[in-house]
Amino acid sequence: MFLQRRNRILRQSPAIRSMVAETILTPNDFIVPLFINEGEHYKEEIASMPGYYRMSLDNTVKEVKELWSMGLKSVLLFIKCKDELKDNKGTEALNPKGLMQRSIRAIKEACPDMLVMTDIALDPFSSFGHDGIVEGSAIVNDATVEVLAQMSVSHAQAGADFVAPSDMMDGRIAAIREALEENGLNNTGIMSYSAKYASCFYGPFRDALDSAPGFGDKKTYQMDYSNRLEAVKETLMDVEEGADIVMVKPALAYLDIIREVKNAVSVPVSAYNISGEYAMIKAAARMGWIDENKAILETLTAIKRAGADLIATYFAKDAVKLIS
Ligand code: PBG
Taking the alpha carbons of 71, 263, 301, 273 in that order, is the dihedral positive or negative? Predict the structure, then answer.
C-alpha cells in the first residue's frame, strides 16, 4: 500500500507518544479535599471511600505539610460538625472559634504558602442536611445567601485564600464579593461551584460528613443532569458576579459540560472529581476488574483534556506519585 499519511508513526514508541502528548498532568493541577473532625490523634477511614480519611486537626496539619512537600499547593477544607451544634440556620458555621475557622488558622500557620480553600454551604452545619435554610419544605434563597456571605467573611478573616460556595443559591457570588469588599478582604478569591448538578455520586461524601439531606433531595437548587445550556448560563452569571475560578461538578459524567464551560469563559475552570467517582474506581480495582493506577491517570487526564485547568480530587497524592 502507498499511504500519504500514516498516523501510527506518532504512536510507535513511548518517546514519540510522550513527545506529542497534548495533555500532561502536573501537581499544579490538583486541589486536595480534606475532611476534618474534632479530636486529637484521630484518623478514621471513610467506609465508602477506602483509602481516604477523616482526621483531627493535628493529623490534618501533618498531612498538609506532606502534601506541600509533594508539590501540592492547594487544599479544600470540609469539616464534620457535631450533631449537637447543628441547627436550621447553620449558626455554628459563623463561629469564629468553630472547627473550620480553627483549621484554617492552624494550616496557614503551619504551612503559610499552602492555598487554603473552604467549602461554603450550610449542609454540614444544618440539622436538615440541606445547603440552605429550611422553611416548611422549601430551601429559602435570600436568607441563606446572607448566611453564606457572613460565613465567607468568617473564613476569610481566619485566613482562607479562596472561599468555595457549593450551595447553588441564586445571587450568592455577588453577595459574597460585596461582603468581602466591605470587610476589607480584597485579596480573598471566590472559586464558585457554578455548575453543580444534583448527583447520586455525592453519596460517599455525605457519609464522610454525615451530611445527607434529612428530607427530600437537592433538586430545587442543584442542577438537573439533563441540562447543558443551563451550565453555561449559571457559569457566565457567576463570572459576572465576581467568581475568580468557576467549577463543574461532578466531573466524569460531565466532561461535555467542562468543555462547554471552558469554551464560554475566560477565567480558570476547575472540575470536581467527586467522592462517587473515587469510590467507583476503588471498588472496581478491589474486585480486580480494573487497574487502579491506570484508571486514576486516564480519568484525571480526561478531565484535564475536557478543559479543566484545576481538578479537585481524592486521587491527588496517588496521581503525584504516579507522574513523578
Ligand atoms: C456540600 C458539598 C457536597 C460536595 C462538596 N460540597 C455534597 C452535596 O452537595 O451534597 C460533594 C463532594 C463529593 O462528593 O466528593 N454542599
Answer: positive
Q: What is the pLDDT of residue 199?
A: 97
Residue nearest to atom 8 of ligand 1 (CA): 202
Looking from the CA of residue 33, the nearest atom of ligand 1 is 15
pLDDT of residue 227: 98
Q: Which residues are catalytic?
A: 196, 249
Cβ atoms of 169 and 234 within 8 Å: the answer is no
User: 112 and 161 in contact (C-beta within 8 Å)?
Assistant: no
Q: How many Cβ atoms are within 10 Å of 259's Cβ, its own excluded? A: 16
Residues of the chain with pLDDT under 50: none
- DSSP helix/strand/coil, 160: coil
Q: Are 183 and 153 in contact (CB under 8 A)?
A: yes
Q: What is the pLDDT of residue 210?
A: 87
CA distance 29 to 38: 29
Q: What DSSP letter does each residue of 110-130 carry, written as one string? A: H-TTSEEEEEE-SGGGBTT--
Complex ipTM: 0.96
Residue 176's closest CA among 144, 142, 155, 150? 150
Domains of the chain in start order, with CATH, are 23-323 (3.20.20.70)
- Looking at ligand 1, which atom is closest to the CA of residue 222? 9
Cα(152)–Cα(172) distance, rounded to whole angstroms?
A: 10
Give residue 44 CA to ligand 1 midpoint distance, Å.
19
Cis? peptide before 14, omega within 30° of 0: no
Nearest to 33 by CA among 46, 52, 58: 52
Predicted TM-score (pTM) above 0.90: yes
* Interacting residues of 173 by C-beta distance below 8 A, sequence separation 6+: 165, 190, 192, 237, 238, 241, 242, 243
60-91 pLDDT, tens per residue? Answer: 999 999 999 999 999 999 999 999 999 999 99
pLDDT at 171: 98
Q: State the amino acid at position 211 in one-letter form.
A: S
